[in-house]
Amino acid sequence: MSEEILTASAESEETVLENPVDETAANEAVVSDEKAEEAEAPAETMADYEDAITASMKPIHEGDILSGTIIGVSDEELTIDLGIYTDGVIRLEDASDDPSFTFRDMEVGQEISATVIRRDNAQGRIQLSLKAAAAVLGWERLLQLEKDQSNIKVKISEAVKSGVTTFVEGIRGFIPASKLSLNYVENLDEYVGKEIEVRVITADPEEKRLVLSAKDILREKEEEERKTRISNIEVGLVTEGKVESLMPYGAFVDLGNGLSGLVHVSQISQQRIKHPGAVLKEGQTVKVKITAVKDGKISLSMKALEDVAATEIEEEVFEMPETEEATTTLASLFKNIRL
Question: What does the alpha-carbon distance between residue 282 and residue 64 come to, in Å, rounded to a whole number?
Answer without folding.
Answer: 66
